[in-house]
């Protein structure tokens, strides 16, 4: 009788972990995407490393924002770690309205996103987006963005008559392509205006300043933003263990700056940068994996730390 009671007690003690991990076979593969921004490359890499450590098969795709949202709606993707609010409100609104994409959790605060210029351009009198037109020749009537599909706010501002930028060109390439142009301009003291944001090592790599005047597009306080995790409709109920992890993962600006530095300066892959950052700061794992099981029902924190060699 005593042995039976002990067996029952042991079974019950395992029940929460096993129940948390009890998910349909469709949850074994977790499909993520990011648009090629280093902050989102890093955070998606972190999620990928942790999910793989838990025994899931996580994969990440590089896609434009429009395609990411359409893929979430079509259930071709599961998770997006990078909804910037308010900068991406216009992208998300149709999917919020029809309920096809759900916001899970705020994973970062203290971010910002708006037009930026080198400090010497700011010191020369360009403090506001409205100041650009008066110096059109020095800028060659160009503003530099990132990946196609991620620069809609720049296009919208060029169409706003009050800025007098109708004949300016938005140069689209990639985050790295844009930063290469910034680096070249700064080295030659040329004038350039581009998409700037934090967290990002660019804030330490270059002497830059952010322009006011974009409140109607980027939001107040120089595009002050929060970043959120989003999923396709129904995913949280379908995959509750992954959902528990997604609700826990919360980044901060110093961690992201560090991780993005590994990507940009050290040439690491997303998962290499994530693994290095997590090994250096294992205290994050204890918070993020609270109440999260490995896919086989075992302790999630133990499984992930073992996978990282901790």
From TrEMBL:
Database matches in InterPro entries = ABC_choline_sub-bd, ABC_Gly_betaine_transp_sub-bd
The protein's UniProt keywords, in alphabetical order, are: Signal
Which region is the signal sequence? 1-21
* Pfam families given in the database record: OpuAC
Q: Which NCBIfam families match?
A: ABC_choline_bnd
Describe the location of the ABC-type glycine betaine transport system substrate-binding domain by residue ranges: 29-279
Would I find DNA-binding among this entry's keywords? Answer: no
Keyword Transmembrane attached:
no
Q: What is this protein called?
A: Choline ABC transporter substrate-binding protein
């Amino acid at each position: 009788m005593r042995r039976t009671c002990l067996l029952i007690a042991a079974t019950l003690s395992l029940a929460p972990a096993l129940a948390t991990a009890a998910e349909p076979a469709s949850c074994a593969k977790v499909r993520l995407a990011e648009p090629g921004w280093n902050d989102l490359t890093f955070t998606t890499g972190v999620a990928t490393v942790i999910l793989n450590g838990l025994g899931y098969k996580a994969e990440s795709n590089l896609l434009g924002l429009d395609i990411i949202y359409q893929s979430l709606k079509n259930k071709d993707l599961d998770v997006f770690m990078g909804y910037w609010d308010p900068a991406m409100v216009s992208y998300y609104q149709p999917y919020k309205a029809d309920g096809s994409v759900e916001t899970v959790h705020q994973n970062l605060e203290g971010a910002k996103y708006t037009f930026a210029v080198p400090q010497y351009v700011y010191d020369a009198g360009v403090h506001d987006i409205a100041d650009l037109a008066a110096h059109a020749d020095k800028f060659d009537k160009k503003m530099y963005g990132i990946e196609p599909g991620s620069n809609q706010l720049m296009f919208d501002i060029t169409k706003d008559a009050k800025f007098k930028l109708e004949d300016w060109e938005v140069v689209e390439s990639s985050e790295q392509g844009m930063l290469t142009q910034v680096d070249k301009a700064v080295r030659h003291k040329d004038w350039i205006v581009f998409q700037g944001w934090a967290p990002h090592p660019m804030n330490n790599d270059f002497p830059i300043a952010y322009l006011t005047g974009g409140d109607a597009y980027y939001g107040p306080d120089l595009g002050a933003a929060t970043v959120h995790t989003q999923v396709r409709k129904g995913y949280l109920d379908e995959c509750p263990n992954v959902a528990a992890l997604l609700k826990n993962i919360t980044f901060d600006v110093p961690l992201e700056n560090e991780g993005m530095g590994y990507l940009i300066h050290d040439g690491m892959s997303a998962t290499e940068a994530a693994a290095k950052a997590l090994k250096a700061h294992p205290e994050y794992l204890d918070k993020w994996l609270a109440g999260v099981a490995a896919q086989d029902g075992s302790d999630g924190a133990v499984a992930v730390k073992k996978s990282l060699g901790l």
